[in-house]
Amino acid sequence: MTEMPATLRIVEHPLVQHKLTLMREKDTSTAVFRQLLREISQLLAYEITADLPMTTKRIETPIQQMDAPVLAGKKLALISILRAGNGLLDGVLELVPSARVGFVGLYRDEETLEPVEYYFKVPEGLADRMTIAVDPMLATGNSSVAAIDMLKKAGATNVRFLCLLAAPEGVRRMAEAHPDVPVVTAALDERLNEKGYIVPGLGDAGDRMFGTK
Ligand code: URA
């Protein structure tokens, strides 16, 4: 595989990799898939938030006063790229329950593979928030890039992208369009097939998490 952009970070934690393998298996049920996605998204969220800015706050323990570390700045903005993004969103929100949440609705035209917008609702003050866009599959990158275009147009300046699986094509496309956006993923797969699915992948993430076909 040719060199990947420096914006890509693969989370190689054994728990992430084990859970991902279970999710890839075609006979994994919807309920188990959903549960695994919830668990894995918390582990990925832990990684993508590892360098959040900190400050201190004066508190009183039962023993004495101390300057204790707390998160600095405005609450995070989590942006789910519908519909599959909601699966990742749930887990991340469990870890960062005070985050503000937005939704970008894009569907992929099956013929052209181009994104088509149908919904956009995001928290105010994006310019002052770390903004994490979530979508399980970074495939062609078309919809993810379009979503981040929209977030930047709405004022976001500090954007990260969280996914479960990435294809080299999507990672490159994202790095070209948004070189300032780090991409955090559990795995970088081989390629896209002619239908735009990630290979070996896990199939259609939305169908697998919602039990649709
Ligand atoms: N979206 C999916 O759900 N799966 C893929 O493999 C590619 C895009």
From TrEMBL:
<keyword id="KW-0547">Nucleotide-binding</keyword>
<feature type="binding site">
    <location>
        <begin position="203"/>
        <end position="205"/>
    </location>
    <ligand>
        <name>uracil</name>
    </ligand>
</feature>
<feature type="domain" description="Phosphoribosyltransferase">
    <location>
        <begin position="11"/>
        <end position="212"/>
    </location>
</feature>
<feature type="binding site">
    <location>
        <position position="108"/>
    </location>
    <ligand>
        <name>5-phospho-alpha-D-ribose 1-diphosphate</name>
    </ligand>
</feature>
<keyword id="KW-0328">Glycosyltransferase</keyword>
<dbReference type="GO" id="GO:0004845">
    <property type="term" value="F:uracil phosphoribosyltransferase activity"/>
</dbReference>
<comment type="similarity">
    <text>Belongs to the UPRTase family.</text>
</comment>
<feature type="binding site">
    <location>
        <begin position="135"/>
        <end position="143"/>
    </location>
    <ligand>
        <name>5-phospho-alpha-D-ribose 1-diphosphate</name>
    </ligand>
</feature>
<protein>
    <recommendedName>
        <fullName>Uracil phosphoribosyltransferase</fullName>
        <ecNumber>2.4.2.9</ecNumber>
    </recommendedName>
</protein>
<dbReference type="InterPro" id="IPR029057">
    <property type="entry name" value="PRTase-like"/>
</dbReference>
<dbReference type="InterPro" id="IPR000836">
    <property type="entry name" value="PRTase_dom"/>
</dbReference>
<dbReference type="GO" id="GO:0005525">
    <property type="term" value="F:GTP binding"/>
</dbReference>
<dbReference type="InterPro" id="IPR034332">
    <property type="entry name" value="Upp_B"/>
</dbReference>
<feature type="binding site">
    <location>
        <position position="204"/>
    </location>
    <ligand>
        <name>5-phospho-alpha-D-ribose 1-diphosphate</name>
    </ligand>
</feature>
<comment type="function">
    <text>Catalyzes the conversion of uracil and 5-phospho-alpha-D-ribose 1-diphosphate (PRPP) to UMP and diphosphate.</text>
</comment>
<keyword id="KW-0342">GTP-binding</keyword>
<feature type="binding site">
    <location>
        <position position="198"/>
    </location>
    <ligand>
        <name>uracil</name>
    </ligand>
</feature>
<dbReference type="InterPro" id="IPR005765">
    <property type="entry name" value="UPRT"/>
</dbReference>
<dbReference type="InterPro" id="IPR050054">
    <property type="entry name" value="UPRTase/APRTase"/>
</dbReference>
<keyword id="KW-0808">Transferase</keyword>
<dbReference type="Pfam" id="PF14681">
    <property type="entry name" value="UPRTase"/>
</dbReference>
<keyword id="KW-0021">Allosteric enzyme</keyword>
<dbReference type="GO" id="GO:0005737">
    <property type="term" value="C:cytoplasm"/>
</dbReference>
<dbReference type="GO" id="GO:0006223">
    <property type="term" value="P:uracil salvage"/>
</dbReference>
<dbReference type="GO" id="GO:0000287">
    <property type="term" value="F:magnesium ion binding"/>
</dbReference>
<comment type="pathway">
    <text>Pyrimidine metabolism; UMP biosynthesis via salvage pathway; UMP from uracil: step 1/1.</text>
</comment>
<feature type="binding site">
    <location>
        <position position="83"/>
    </location>
    <ligand>
        <name>5-phospho-alpha-D-ribose 1-diphosphate</name>
    </ligand>
</feature>
<dbReference type="GO" id="GO:0044206">
    <property type="term" value="P:UMP salvage"/>
</dbReference>
<keyword id="KW-0460">Magnesium</keyword>
